[in-house]
Amino acid sequence: MDFPVTFHIFGKDILLHPITETAGIFVGMRYYTFLKRNDREKFSNVNSLLILIAATLGALIGSHTIGSLERPDDLMKTSDLWAYIWLNNTIVGGLAGGLIGVEIMKKIIGKKESTGDRMVYPLIVAMFIGRIGCFFTGVYEETYGLPTSSMLGMDLGDHINRHPVALYEMLFLLLLFISLKYFQKMYTYKSGVLFQIFMLSYFSFRFLLDFIKPTYNIILGLSIIQLVCISIIIYYIYLLKKNRHEIIRSR
Where are the transmembrane segments (predicted)? Predict the structure, then answer.
C-alpha cells in the first residue's frame, strides 16, 4: 500500500483524511440527532442549541490551542502564527475544550444536570471514522508511531516499521463502544456517569499511547497532550468516585 492514500477528483489529488474527518462529523451528528430525538430528557431546543454551540466553539479553540502547543520550538519559529495554529489540532484538545465550553454554558443557563451521556456513542463513531483517514495518511501527518521491531510494525510511507497508532486507537474505540454498551445494559447509574467513564477511559488510553508516538517533552518527560490527559483523568476520577454509590448492578 502506498501512503498517503489519495483520490484523483476533478484533476486534483485529494487526501482520504479530510474526507473521513468530514464523514465522521456528519455521521456523528446524525447519530446524535437520532439519540436526542428518542431521549426522554426534557430540555428546551434553545438551551440544547446553546450547549451544542458552546461545545463546538470550545472544541475548536481547544483543539487548535493544544495542537499548536505540542511543539513549542516550532510555534516560536513560525513566521505565520495564525496559519500555524489553524493547521495544528488534536482530538485531545477538542474534547477538553468542548468539555470546558459546555460547563461554562451550563453555568450561564443554570443547568446542573449532565448533558454528556447521549454524546458518547456519536463521539466514538466520529473518532473511529476520522482515525481511518489518519491511518491512510501514514507519516505525512503527525498521527504515526515510533519505529518498532515488533510484529505489529508497519511501513507507513517512510520505509521504517512503525507502531500503527491509528489502528491501535480504532481497536480501542471499538472495544470501548462494546464495553460501554455492556455497562449500560448491566447497570443503572446517575446521568452523566456514562460520559465520565468514556472520558476517563479515552484520556487514560491517550496518555499511554503518546509514549509510542513522536512527541516533544515539556516536563518530566511528558508531552503537552499527556499533561492535558493527566488533568482530565484526575477530574473524572474525582467525579466517578463521588458518583460511585449511584452505580448499581441491575442484572
Answer: 14-34, 46-69, 81-100, 120-140, 160-180, 192-212, 218-239
Percentages of the chain per state (helix, strand, coil), in multiples of 5 = 65, 10, 25
The Cα–Cα gap between 68 and 76 comes to 10
Neighbours of 229 (CB within 10 A): 24
> Alpha-carbon distance 165 to 171, whole Å?
10
List the grid coordinates of 72: 513549542
Q: What is the pTM of this model?
A: 0.90
Strand spans (E) along the chain: 6-9, 12-15, 154-155, 161-162, 187-188, 248-249
- Distance of alpha carbon 87 from alpha carbon 66, whole angstroms: 12
Cell of 105: 454554558
Using one digit for the tens of pLDDT, what is the confidence trace for 126-179? 999 999 999 999 998 878 999 999 999 999 999 999 999 999 999 999 999 999
Widest pairwise Cα distance in the chain: 60
The DSSP result for 177-210, as a single string, is HHHHHHHHHHEE--TTHHHHHHHHHHHHHHHHHG
Which residue in 34, 191, 31 sits closest to 111, CA to CA? 191
Grid coordinates of 231: 488533568
Cell numbers that stand for 57 in this block: 466553539
pLDDT given for residue 39 in this prediction = 66
176 within 8 A of 131, measured Cβ to Cβ: no
- Cα angle: 239, vertex 56, 128; to 5 degrees: 75
66 to 124, 179, 199: CA distances (angstroms): 20, 29, 17
